[in-house]
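To fix ideas at the outset, we first show an illustrative case, written as a sequence plus integers encoding its fold:
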Amino acid sequence: MTVLKRKKPNPRQSAARDEKSAPPVKVNDEKLFHVILAPHVSEKSTRVADKNRQVVFEVRRDATKPVIKQAVEMMFNVQVEAVTVTNVKGKNKQTGRMAGRRQDWKKAYVRLKPGQDINFVGMQ
């Protein structure tokens, strides 16, 4: 007679399953204003904005995708379709005898729903 052993559930898989069905994160409105640090303007960000309806922001290093989504929707009064996050490593710098490193930072690509737009230039 053979005995079948039960597999232990993988904690990573069960946590990922719970995140998808979790309710939206509740964050204080005052804290949401400190999540987005600045818009990130570069050649790539303008190309992405024209092609994919995405806006690029520098955000706090501890910010999560749901919190970034809430912050953008509240600050700019737009609807967000998706958020993609990238951790950017700081550059190594050397000047003479001084060696140092710039700080790591986080970049968020925010995709807006069709018909939505963020105007950084302001009213003209």
